[in-house]
Amino acid sequence: MAETMHHYFIFETASGFCGIAWSDAGITRFQLPTKAAEATERLLLRRLPGAEPGTPTPDVLETVAAVKRYFQGEETDFSGVELDLAGQDTFFREIYAAVRRVGWGRTTTYGALAKELGVGPEAARDVGQAMAKNPVALIIPCHRVLAAGGKIGGFSAPGGSSSKARMLELEGVNLAPPPPAQQSLGF
């Protein structure tokens, strides 16, 4: 069996340098922004050793343009981007397909995704693991998946949960607790 050739491209956005990798079948990896192109390249190659720099295909260039629009705060839909998820667990693929249906400015929870997939609440932990191993964060919008009670939860990308919060803020999602129902009279 021939080994799949992967190419990658590092590019700058309003939030920093991102990386994208692809095969003939689709996008295989996406690296969320870091402050330096070298750091992005190092993180991308850590997960995809042997990938070679390449000239993006028209489809990859379209995705790069969409990523740039996203980090400028423009509503962006990545649900039509062709992905190559070869080697991913079948259940993780089902989870990723469900997450791709969570649109701009919307959120869900690990438990709600488990329920949507017809598995019990104990599978919420599996959903969390799938999010942590998401090879194409943003394109599969794992940042839109929150912990129970609307808490931010974890995020394995550079910057951790503060990066997740910034991405949600770009989409207009307010994570602050609601104001108290009754205000002080100020006497």
UniProtKB/TrEMBL annotation:
Pfam families with a match to the protein in the record: DNA_binding_1
Q: Name one GO molecular function term.
A: methylated-DNA-[protein]-cysteine S-methyltransferase activity
- Identify the residues that the record assigns to the Methylated-DNA-[protein]-cysteine S-methyltransferase DNA binding domain, covering every copy: 91-173
Name of the protein in its database record = Methylated-DNA--[protein]-cysteine S-methyltransferase
Which PANTHER family does the entry mention? METHYLATED-DNA--PROTEIN-CYSTEINE METHYLTRANSFERASE
Q: Which Gene3D superfamilies match?
A: Methylated DNA-protein cysteine methyltransferase domain, Winged helix-like DNA-binding domain superfamily/Winged helix DNA-binding domain
Give the E.C. number(s). 2.1.1.63
Keyword DNA damage in record: yes
Share an example GO biological-process annotation for this protein. Answer: DNA repair
CDD domains xrefs: ATase
